[in-house]
Amino acid sequence: MTPGPAPGDWWRHGVLYQVYPRSFQDSNGDGVGDLAGITSRLDHLNDGTPDSLGIDGIWLSPFYPSPMADFGYDVADYCDVDPRFGTLADFDELLGQAHERAIRVIVDLVPNHTSDEHPWFLEARASRDNPRRDWYVWADPAADGAPPNDWRSAFPAVGRAWTLDRRTDQYYLHSFTREQPDLNWWNPGVRRAFEQILRFWLDRGVDGFRIDVAHRTVKPRELHGHIPVENIPGVLDLMPPADEPELHALLRSWRALLDEYDDRMAVGEVFLFDPARLVSFYGSANDELHLAFNFSFLRAPWSAEAFRRVVATFERLLPKGAWPDYTLSNHDNSRAVSRYAPDGDLERGRKRARMAALMLLTLRGTPFLYYGEEIGMADGPIPPERVVDVGGRDSERTPMQWDASRNGGFSTADPWLPASPEASSVNVEAQRADPDSMLSLYRRLIWSRRSRAALQSGTYRELPGMPADCFGYVREAGTERALVCLNFGSKPIRIPEEELTGAGLGDQLRVISTGAGREGPARGAIELEPDEGVLVEPSTRPEPLAEERARG
Length: 552
Ligand code: NOJ
Known about the structure:
Layout: H1 10-13, E1 16-19, H2 21-24, H3 35-40, H4 42-45, E2 57-60, H5 88-100, E3 104-109, H6 119-124, E4 138-139, E5 162-165, E6 170-173, H7 188-204, E7 208-211, H8 245-259, E8 265-268, H9 275-279, E9 291-292, H10 296-299, H11 304-317, E10 325-327, H12 336-339, H13 346-360, E11 366-370, H14 428-432, H15 438-451, H16 453-457, E12 459-462, E13 470-477, E14 480-487, E15 493-495, H17 497-502, E16 509-513, E17 520-521, E18 526-528, E19 533-538, H18 546-551
Parallel strand pairs: 1-2, 1-11, 2-3, 3-7, 7-8, 8-9, 10-11
Antiparallel strand pairs: 4-6, 5-6, 12-13, 13-14, 14-19, 15-18, 16-17, 16-19
The site of 1-deoxynojirimycin has 10 residues, from loops.
């Protein structure tokens, strides 16, 4: 086994990495990524040496049988593998190979809705008195035949969140596409079915779940059953409100189920930007989600104050004992490099993304990386005739760029989404041996984090007295300290020597910088270029952490 965070702590102190299976590696030449492809690339993620990225766990986006109306987030069978991705045996092989490398595996649970081709929905829509009818959310049309209220789908292109089922003359609710009918979580049968699904994967050995739309699964009770239209709360342009007490009760019941097993976890997609509501999903007694995704960096403008505030607010509001987490990119949002590129200037975007990476990997909290982030992949251009996603998210899902060969080494066939033209220069192979590459920076930061208690689990303290454009903080565990300064401004910034001595880091310091060629021992004051960040830490190699020793 490779060194890694201690059991019980792996999801707090490890680095997690999202794999979008369709886009990671195609092993059978059909243009779509698959499970065997992921297995073949595990050594890139962690082979136990600093030549690999060094992550501790992967989150797999859905690979279940699906008609792919939402590329797998429309599930037709929760306990199998879509033939496009392989078989359950391929899944077991992936899980086994990952565990051999001390890589944990969490799978995506999609409880808000099923596919309209799921057998449950086929039964439900067969007749109004079918026993499965109540597993979904139905409502009578208004007097003029219109939908029961003005709720809209999360995808603007879909429009209304209601579709009329002509055979039974009632509308069903779909928070996303029409092919994704929402489940009715007031029905005890639905709850029991999902408990079985959770156990199916836990018994198979998965280390936990990423829970899709964790904040909206339980709808307001008034929607239950065949209720008169006027009782349904109609809110223009809003999906059903979150925060039903029963939603929290549901998450508590899943936590209790996970706690029956060793060392498992759940991270919820809580797509809320009100931090007070976000932290409520950890549970007041830390008894709901282990982690609730904090998506605030995805919307933060490029300023020291905006980023500082995200962290300060989360640190202040988190319930006692709860653990933060952060992310810069995922399959639903423009990639960090493109988001940070002023006027499309990808070079600046990459400089900034390097600084954001240094921040992400040194903050107190679990970092979630998105495939390709480690090489600075940008959003890929998608010609109009190749657009496939109703939610407009194709650009951030283009094939992983492994090397300069055809389709970036992703597939020998024409891929389901075009490989980015940048793949010939921005790829794993090209960056592996270049000490100044984005990949080398990620590897340095991750392996440094793995060996330092201050970075893995230490306290977080803002550095006061920083220039306005600079976000600075200190991480500390026992006598070990590390300092981070990030220059968000457009002018160079000088960190005086006294600031470094005052932080009590010791005398022998080394710098990991996001600027090329700046690494090495720290002497005197440090000058930061615009969009440059540094990690200053003791130059002595730390003793391996106890848990690393135990596993190594
Ligand atoms: C959130 C997922 O991340 C997104 O990709 C999906 O479209 C919706 N939930 C619906 O499942």
